[in-house]
Amino acid sequence: MKRRSRNPGSQSALRHLNEERIIETLLGSGPSTQAEISRHTGLSTATVSNIVKSMAETGLISTSPTTSSGRRALSVTLNGNGAVAVGIDFGRSHVRVVLANLGYRVVAERAIPLPLGHKASEGIRAAADLLDALLAEAKLKRSCIIGVGAGIPGPIDRRSGTVIQGAILPEWVGISILNRLEESLQMPVFADNDANLGALAQVTWGPHGAVSNLMFLKIGSGIGAGLIINGAPYYGNIGVTGEIGHATISEHGLICRCGNRGCLETVASTAIMIELLSRGAHTPLTANDIVNRALAGDAATLRVVDDAGVAVGRAVANVANLINPEVIVVGGPLAELGEVLLEPIRRGLMRHAVPVVGESTSLAMSSLGDRAEALGAAALVFQHQGIHR
């Protein structure tokens, strides 16, 4: 989601489209003279000259004198680390910030813990401070930033940019995430649900770039899904999609935070696993403890993971029957479990999916670990700027 221009046919909107055309030309052809850019894009030399001057001032490109056909000319080059996208992942108890250059390479990255139930002002302030620290570490100026992408663990109403009921961060519900972030960071911001960004990361940073239909399933304190359909993120009517965590698994199950009973989150989230395995323990376990115990062969942990996996597979099967994805990628804090978690999910999928759908759907663990959402946020910026990998 991004702030929409009040007039899509305005001069500023047209200028942005022309900037995208110039960027695509430079990405495809490498350093080019303004005359060559004009020929490739069909833009007038005067238009190219004006846009190049503006882009050079923001650090997106650099220019240098050269000669072409014996005449003086200006060579235009896309900057590498001179222009970066910022990706921010706001989690239930952390914030992660990455800086990525135009070549889709991370130049700086760091995550810090946040208190459970933190307010939006705390999370945004922490992200702003972390961004300043990373810019200093990478010796970059704020003028090098072409935009900021941000992921929120909860649904966002794309009509208003408001975080709505159902977010893992209840203190954030009701705020306009775009307004708050842009006020704090003083730069263009694009925001989305974290699972949507996880899906985008799989087809930009991950090994699934050639996949047109993909589902990214994030299993954490909540459970959400991001969808890539026909090569593009799917947002539905108002942006509230992929809420698979609130699919009913047991009509007589526990009351979910959404108000319904027996949702997938009440039987398969890490919060429920931790609650089950922490009974009788002196201190509550963590998601890392679940991973370590399961990999060590602890019987109770393996049973909890297996039950959760089968339930997830059942819910995923309903989605697979509906959209027939090529790949379902599982991410979140339990990703290190690999086949320990994938195997019961696969059993649930095969049991409840139409046979040909189950057999033709690949199931994989995300190779991006806990960086997926932040990398997807950076990719969101690149997409809006017309910079494709």
Describe the structure.
- With 389 residues, the chain is of the alpha/beta class.
- It contains 13 helices and 15 strands.
- The strands form four sheets. A five-stranded mixed β-sheet has the order 6-5-4-7-10, sandwiched between helices.
- It is elongated.
- The two termini are 20 Å apart.
- The model is unreliable at 4-8 (pLDDT under 50).
Basic shape: elongated
Strand content: 15-25%
Q: Could you name the ranges where pLDDT drops below 50 across 5 or more consecutive residues?
A: 4-8
Strand element count: 15
From the N-terminal CA to the C-terminal CA, the straight-line distance is 20 Å
Structural class estimated from helices and strands: alpha/beta
Topology summary:
Blueprint: H1 11-29, E1 32-33, H2 34-41, H3 45-57, E2 61-68, E3 71-78, E4 84-90, E5 94-101, E6 106-113, H4 120-138, E7 145-152, E8 156-157, E9 162-163, H5 177-185, E10 189-193, H6 194-204, E11 214-219, E12 223-229, E13 232-233, H7 265-268, H8 270-277, H9 287-295, H10 299-323, E14 327-331, H11 339-352, H12 355-360, E15 362-365, H13 372-384
Parallel strand pairs: 4-7, 7-10, 11-14, 14-15
Antiparallel strand pairs: 1-3, 2-3, 4-5, 5-6, 8-9, 11-12, 12-13
Helix pairs in contact: 1-3, 2-3, 4-5, 6-13, 10-11
